[in-house]
Amino acid sequence: MKRYVVLAMTVTLLAGCASAGSLRNSKPTASYAGPGSAADIASCISGAWGSKPVHLESYVLYTGTTIEIHQTENGPAVALVDIKPVSDHTVATYYSNFDEDDTWYFQQVQECVDKTPAPAP
């Protein structure tokens, strides 16, 4: 029985990776650069997106942070933002496969990138 549970969990995780991977293989909807840290920008975006009735998943990697939007807890990613430090600034790249108008989501990415100040020296 444990094998079946582990197998089901593995398939679910791989399905999530596949949907995020296919989003990244598409042309980005928007890309923004600003002086704020990747962690601060990710926190801002997560807070804004969290006000909507969607399921968010965040992954912090050594290359930056990814925040995925899922319409349901077990559904595929319908949008994501990759937030990465690049040289002396941070780049937030938004990818989407929403069935509806998602302008509000990428506007929140832009607002967070624009309003997050650079870390104190």
UniProtKB/TrEMBL annotation:
Residues 1-20 form the signal peptide. PROSITE patterns: PROKAR_LIPOPROTEIN (PS51257). Keywords: Signal. This is Lipoprotein. It comes from Dyella kyungheensis. The lineage of its organism: Bacteria, Pseudomonadati, Pseudomonadota, Gammaproteobacteria, Lysobacterales.
